[in-house]
Write a structure and sequence with these properties.
By secondary structure, this protein is mainly alpha-helical. It contains 13 helices and 8 strands. It has a 3-stranded parallel β-sheet. Strand 4, helix 5 and strand 5 form a beta-alpha-beta unit. Helix 8 packs parallel to helix 13. The longest helix is centred in the middle third of the chain and has 29 residues. The radius of gyration is 21 Å and the shape is globular. It starts with a helix and ends with a helix.
Length: 303
């Protein structure tokens, strides 16, 4: 994401970066270089607060609700200084691309808005590691339409890192959309793995079965793009021993957030608890591999 952002922002801008993994930061800075004739300057800073002091647009991507809360507590521990006089923006823009629960996100938004430290939007993403590298991510945006021009200001920045931006409503709506989508993803991945295993057990050629499903009503992202059987989805994690995809711990986190939201908002989700049980068992045996490894887990249970 940082590479795509650096390649597309103005060469007069500066891209500030920070991560707790200092080795990753050093590696990225080394790869990108700190300056260039036609690209933005890249500078590593020591904390989120330091980035917020220097930048007009701040993008955060973190593992979970507690991490996001901690980072914004660091940023907002005291009032931020005024923006530089040479910027055309009147206030800072905070874009959080983490997948967390809408309630926590709205609380952080209030912590930004109440002391007038800037504007905060939620923009979780879909597309995985492949989409992040290729710049084809889909962003689900929750942003107020009451503050003029906010959506118009956010969208170009997100399109530097992705291909599609869906504005779903007020702040928190992007996360609501992401959790609904990833609940469906959790279920459809298990169903795809079960269907592929069932067909193979009945004597079907796995590749032919995959092509059939992807030309029929059972087609879904898990069958077409991330099929758990080798030879069906080019570049899928199965080709790398289920490495480098959407790890089971992340899937469990998102499913857990969706289940929490279902309880909070009174939505019936019959299959969620069983999906949580399956992913928990698979993680215990297979670790943090891509979640399509459910297929291998099923095969081994049948042997």
């Amino acid at each position: 994401m940082a590479k795509n952002l650096r390649a597309k922002i103005s060469s007069t801008d500066t891209l500030y970066i920070h991560d707790r993994n200092t080795e990753a930061v050093i590696s990225l800075v080394k790869e990108l270089g700190t300056s260039g004739d036609s690209v933005a300057i890249v500078e590593a800073l020591s904390s989120p607060r330091e980035i917020a002091e220097k930048a007009t647009t701040i993008i955060t991507v973190l593992p979970g609700p507690s991490h996001v809360s901690s980072v914004y507590h660091n940023i907002l521990s005291r009032p931020l200084s005024s923006l530089p006089s040479d910027t055309s923006e009147s206030e800072r823009l905070f874009i959080d691309c983490s997948t967390i629960d809408p309630t926590t996100s709205r609380s952080i938004a209030n912590a930004v808005h109440s002391p007038q430290q800037g504007r905060f939007v939620d923009a979780p993403m879909s597309g995985g590691v492949v989409g992040a590298s290729a710049g084809t991510l889909t962003f689900m945006l929750g942003a107020s339409t009451r503050s003029g021009g906010l959506v118009a200001r956010v969208t170009p920045t997100l399109k530097h890192m992705g291909a599609r931006v869906f504005h779903l409503g007020e702040q928190g709506s992007g996360l609501a959309g992401k959790l609904a989508n990833n609940y469906l993803l959790a279920i459809s991945n298990i169903a795809t793995c079960e269907a592929m295993n069932l067909g193979v057990k009945m004597g079907l050629d796995a590749v032919k079965l995959g092509k059939l499903i992807n030309s029929s009503s059972g087609r879904c992202w898990s069958s077409e793009v991330n099929n758990p059987v080798e030879g069906i989805s080019k570049g899928a994690p199965v080709e790398r021993g289920y490495e480098g995809g959407f790890g089971i711990p992340l899937m469990r986190k998102d499913l857990g957030l969706a289940m929490k939201a279902a309880q909070e908002f009174g939505a019936t989700v019959e299959l969620g608890a069983e999906a949580e049980r399956v992913y928990g068992s698979v993680e215990n045996e297979k670790g943090a591999k891509d979640f399509s490894i459910v297929y291998k887990w099923l095969k081994e249970r049948n042997s």
